Amino acid sequence: MFNSTFKRTAVAAAIALGLSGAAIAQDTSSVVRGNVVTESGEVAANARVEIIHIPTGTRSVATTNESGAFSNSGLRVGGPYIIVIESSEGKKVYEDVYLSLGEPYRVNAQLESSDMERLQVTGSAILGGANSGSSSYFGEEDIANTPTFNRDLK
Q: pTM surpassing 0.85?
């Protein structure tokens, strides 16, 4: 009788351990992966891929490899997300992206060239001018005459 009870207990423990391993292995995050090419269709190596979760402001950054591919895992399920892909050849933005559990979100991006005008702003300090910004000076007499509770500065 003892041998039969021991066998049943051992089998039950083995089943419980086997099922607990399967429960731990479940995935609770999502993945964004894809390929990036330039406007002319060439591979965009070393492009920066930034994935921003709008509700929390969490940012995740990946870089494309030599073949223009990238993968970023461990992302929260849901959204909305903004995906910004940038390189020296151009930029591409995806808005209102929602991620699903167990299904990678695929991005096949073709960068768009950005013809932006660069502005350079320079300035210089005016030394010896009448206005040196906001400042205050409190001397010993000012501090002694300041009303305080029990004359304690704290």
A: no
Q: How far apart are CA 35 and CA 108, in angstroms?
A: 5
Task: Tell me the pLDDT tens digit for each residue of 128-143.
Answer: 556 556 677 778 888 7
Whose tokens are 């399967």? That residue is 22
Distance from C-alpha of 35 to C-alpha of 45, rounded to nearest angstrom = 10
Domains of the chain: residue spans and CATH: 27-110 (2.60.40.10)
Terminal CA-CA length for the chain: 79
Q: What are the pLDDT digits (tens) for 9-34?
A: 766 676 766 665 555 556 688 899 99
Give the pair of three-digit tokens for residue 73. 């895992």
